[in-house]
């Protein structure tokens, strides 16, 4: 999972360097399958909660069709990573698909999402992230597995190896004792400082503070999800 997410982020940064004039051909050379959707094709409506807890959340149903399938997302504001008054970032699941996870960002004229199901990993991003043209409301939808030219060598599978086998016997024994003790969740929390240089601010953030911050928050949200689901 970590390799797929890392590959996706490298792909996005690399793709942005190409001008919009070469975008269609370049997308075809980088992605074996993708689809461009107008933002207006997304259907969304708010869900009103009846209990006290849901009054502090924003809940939405969002649906769209892309890549030969129909998506129905249930979105709920992410209060695990953000305060209750921060309501542009969502997480939840695909309706009717067990074990699915969704991370989404909804702003005035922007939408991005990372959708993980048992069958595939889908990414939705504003098309303007990959061009020098101004935002026009279009979205790029693609699967992580369809990023064709950034295939990782098989050595990347090393992350699946049991790292305990590489440790001395004395260290392995202490780890076994720690696992038997009561788990302290605070030990799985670490500070993270993310800094954007001027090129990132100018190209990825389009020289806008809000756009740069939102993109960085999306990255932090992605890292947090990886950390929570693999540790």
UniProtKB/TrEMBL annotation:
It comes from the Eukaryota. GO terms for biological process: membrane protein ectodomain proteolysis; Notch signaling pathway. GO terms for molecular function: metalloendopeptidase activity. Gene3D superfamilies: Collagenase (Catalytic Domain). GO terms for cellular component: plasma membrane. This is Peptidase M12B propeptide domain-containing protein.
